Amino acid sequence: MASTYSDRLNLELQTTGENSGTWGTITNNNLQKLEAAIKGYVSVAIASTSDALTFEDGSTGLEQDNAIIKLTGSLTANTTMQCEAQENWFIVDNATSMGTYTLGFKPAGGTAASLVSSSKHLLYTDGSTMFDVLADCGNIAANGTLTVTGNVEFDGGTFIFNQSSADVDFRIESNGNANAFFVDAGNDRIGIFNASPSVAFDVTGAAKISGAVDLDGGAFTWNDTGASLDFRCETNTLANAFFIDGSADKIGFGTNSPADASVEINQASTTAGTACLSLDQDDTDQEFIKFDGTSNSDQSSSITTDTSVGSITGHIRVNINGTDYWIPFYATN
User: Fold this and answer.
1) CA-CA distance, 255 to 243, in Å (whole number)?
2) Which uninterrupted H or E stretch holds 300?
3) Residue 189 pLDDT grade (very low, low, confident, very high; cuts 50, 70, 90)
4) Predicted pLDDT at 16
5) pLDDT in tens, 246-273
6) Are 171 and 181 within 8 A, CB to CB?
7) Full DSSP string of 126-195
8) pTM for the model
């Protein structure tokens, strides 16, 4: 009976009484193929868009015999490298120049695993499908630095950084800023574009919030450094419903240029039927307006008892409980 060959490694299986005088050579060939399957390395240049590793029954020195395969060359189109349609495993080093093309590795007639440029893959096949072990694996523990040059996708589970609560900072870098997001672990602070946050949440630059903001349990301070900064609140139709002029130390309602007083109210519409100021005092035993000032008998203070101020020049209309009244004012001194 003639020799047969194993399915996976193509080893020559000799029968009793055959190959007289060549058993040693054949046995050595088998041992070389076993050694290559365990520790062998070969560099293979991609020769076509549908290339295949060389293999042959009983022979040695063939590409598929090796455990570690380095693929080289430049792709000219989407390319597939294939092995024999038998169970096997490989460590593949993709050193090809891929450009915009793809490179797959598969058993003949089967389904390919996609290779990543400049990356190493641990692959196995059941004879019909090639599987990338690290593309679908269980828990991974890395005791050193883990560097990823491709995308990272978390799907179906939580992401926890620093579970042991060590004093370890966390940083996300953007295209133009090294500290787009920064967690200062030692001080329990977060910085946005800020590597040295001074409070629990410290933003350097503009911030825009499209949802609700709830401030609960603490004070709200605007412009704590005392810089010359304006503050503006806009309503549906009024651009300056509330305005603080930082440089002039004045407040405007309906105006962004308060000039006549520390607080200026401008109704800001010639047609809207609304007053500049409405006072509603529900505490009936309290005054509507309280003035604090110094009273003198002449006109040198903010309050005067002088009855000879001058002739009445006109009146200001006010509405009290739905009825219009007039407050007189006198000519200037």
Assistant:
1) 7
2) none
3) very high
4) 86
5) 999 999 999 999 998 999 999 888 887 7
6) yes
7) -SSBEEEGGGS-S----SS-----S-----SS---S-TT--S--EEE--SS-TTSEEEETTTTEEEES-S
8) 0.58
Residue 293 in 3-state DSSP?
coil
What is the phi-psi region of residue 40: left when phi exceeds 0, alpha when psi lies from -120 to 50, beta otherwise?
Answer: beta
Q: What is the DSSP letter of 112?
A: P
State the amino acid at position 78 in one-letter form: N
Quick check: 194 and 181 in contact, CB under 8 A? no
CB within 8 A of 38, min separation 6: which ones?
A: 67
Distance of CA 68 to the CA centre of its chain: 37
pLDDT given at position 1: 62
The length of the chain in residues reads 333
Q: What is the mean pLDDT of the chain?
A: 92
CA distance 241 to 268: 9
Measured from the Cβ of residue 304, the count of other Cβ atoms closer than 10 Å reads 15
